């Protein structure tokens, strides 16, 4: 039983590390999306027309 | 020319599809990884914990052969008549453990623990002899429970022969006895923590794969800039997964070896060097401002430092010490349950890696596009400003000269 802590710590770390990386990706996506919007990139023509 | 354009358009269309589907696909694949972790933790019955060993016993006087699968065997033996000797033989004690895991590390002798408890359910006196491979484990006369201290069998054996003879010495016509035998593979101090293997090994594989992608990306980036993003994304993911491998490994070692790290083990050392060289790639890129120079220097660095990957992979095969080698052993007897779960782990983590890689590459490409566009706009603005006619300090907006004593 005494070795179970290592098992849970390891799997906790795996989830934590992948979760953090996903948060990092999401944050980067948000930043890029924001910059794209500022530059008028990534917005489709019909969407742009609608906004106008 | 038209083919290249067509290919670019095709690639752009593929990326557009990916842009829409990426989060859904990622969620599905991560759910798959969750399933892998769930099965690794709960469903796979690891033989090293003694759970799936097979134990048959043969009751010779009744010609009865019972196939018993649980690890804990309780055989109820009945002595039918007064003075009858019962002779039961436990045979075919098979423990399908991956014995090669430790043989590679130089440990060939495998301790093996047997615990037996003889229970005599009446007050009648019996004479009993319990033999393990012909050697007496327990013998004597009496009634009530007889508990055998754990017996350590110093070498690995697929078959353990256990024989029990109980003779009724009392006056009662029936004596109910039972023998309760527990055994476990004692090669591992931490049998539960062995499940870490199911995520540790696939993570290490994906770390190698990430470095491999970075190598390919770097070689191509020396000629064409667009491949640089693949190298950067590959290294980044390799850092993530080698961190996982380098943390989960010592966690296992801290309960199995009772120390998280052994510097004398080449595998551990070289993998650490590989991890540091990954960090080196990132810091080199962060330290060079000129994009062209950054691309070239980091590409040459990645190609040179890739040597740590085959070294890390082969280290425990070339210089075996403590780190187990599970795969590529001709005598590997890894159990089907572990092997299938391990293969599933490799598959699902490769998939997770591929999807994270695509997401990261796409993101880096978009970031580059944005930066290029920004630079272009800045250039354009600068050009516009430069093209403006140089105005006199005294000029007004409408072009008229400011008169002395005027407004302002």
If you had to describe this structure to a student in words, what would you say it looks like?
The complex is a heterodimer of chains A (52) and B (408). With 52 residues, chain A is an all-alpha fold. Chain A has helices spanning 4-39, 45-51. Chain A is built from two helices and no strands. The termini of chain A are far apart. Chain B is built from eight helices and eleven strands. In chain B, α3 packs antiparallel against α4, α3 (197-221) packs parallel to α8 (336-387) and α5 runs antiparallel to α7 (308-318). Helices cover 49% and strands 18% of the residues of chain B. Chain B has helices at residues 2-43, 100-103, 197-221, 228-256, 266-287, 291-305, 308-318, 336-387; strands at residues 54-59, 64-68, 73-79, 85-94, 112-120, 126-132, 135-142, 146-147, 151-153, 162-168, 175-185. The chains are: A mainly alpha (52), B alpha+beta (408). Chain A binds chain B through residues 1-7, 9-11, 13-15, 17-18, 21-22, 25, 28-29, 32, 35-36, 39, 41-42, and chain B through 26, 30, 33, 37, 41, 189-193, 195-196, 199-200, 203, 240, 243-244, 247-248, 251-252, 254-256, 352, 356, 359-360, 363, 366-367, 369-370, 373-374, 377.
């Amino acid at each position: 039983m005494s070795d179970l802590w290592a098992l849970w710590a390891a799997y906790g770390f795996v989830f934590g590390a992948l979760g953090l990386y996903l948060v990092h990706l999401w944050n980067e996506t948000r930043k890029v999306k924001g910059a794209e919007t500022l530059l008028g990139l990534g917005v489709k023509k019909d969407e742009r027309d609608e906004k106008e | 020319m038209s083919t290249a354009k067509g290919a670019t358009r095709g690639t752009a269309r593929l990326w557009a599809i990916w842009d829409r589907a990426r989060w859904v696909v990622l969620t599905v694949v991560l759910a798959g990884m969750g399933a892998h972790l769930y099965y690794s933790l709960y469903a796979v019955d690891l033989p090293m914990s003694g759970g799936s060993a097979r134990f048959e016993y043969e009751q010779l006087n009744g010609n009865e052969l019972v196939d018993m699968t649980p690890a804990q065997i309780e055989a109820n033996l009945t002595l039918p008549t007064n003075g009858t000797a019962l002779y039961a033989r436990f045979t075919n004690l098979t423990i399908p453990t991956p014995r090669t895991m430790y043989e590679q590390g130089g440990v060939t002798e495998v301790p093996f623990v047997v615990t037996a408890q003889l229970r005599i359910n009446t007050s009648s006196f019996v004479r009993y002899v319990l033999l393990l491979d012909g050697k007496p484990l327990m013998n004597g006369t009496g009634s009530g429970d007889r508990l055998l201290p754990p017996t350590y069998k110093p070498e690995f054996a697929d078959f353990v022969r256990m024989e029990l003879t109980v003779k009724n010495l009392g006056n009662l016509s029936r004596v109910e006895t039972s023998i309760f035998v527990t055994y476990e593979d004692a090669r591992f101090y931490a049998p539960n923590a062995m499940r870490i293997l199911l995520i540790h090994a696939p993570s290490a594989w994906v770390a190698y794969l990430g470095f491999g992608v970075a190598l390919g990306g770097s070689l191509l980036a020396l000629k064409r800039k667009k491949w640089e993003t693949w190298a950067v994304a590959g290294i980044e993911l390799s850092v993530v997964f080698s961190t996982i491998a380098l943390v989960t490994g010592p966690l296992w070692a801290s309960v199995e070896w009772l120390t998280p790290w052994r510097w004398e083990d080449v595998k551990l050392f070289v993998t650490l060097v590989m991890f540091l060289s990954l960090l080196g790639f990132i810091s080199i890129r962060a330290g060079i401002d000129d994009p062209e120079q950054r691309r070239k220097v980091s590409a040459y660095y990645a190609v040179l430092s890739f040597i740590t990957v085959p070294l890390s992979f082969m280290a425990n095969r070339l210089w075996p010490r403590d780190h187990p080698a599970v795969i590529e052993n001709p005598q590997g007897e890894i159990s089907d349950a572990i092997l299938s779960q391990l293969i599933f782990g490799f598959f699902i983590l490769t998939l997770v890696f591929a999807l994270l890689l695509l997401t990261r590459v796409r993101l880096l490409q978009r970031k580059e596009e944005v930066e290029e566009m920004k630079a272009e706009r800045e250039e354009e603005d600068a050009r516009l400003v430069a093209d403006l006619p140089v105005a006199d300090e005294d000029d007004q907006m409408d072009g008229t000269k400011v008169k002395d004593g005027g407004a302002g």
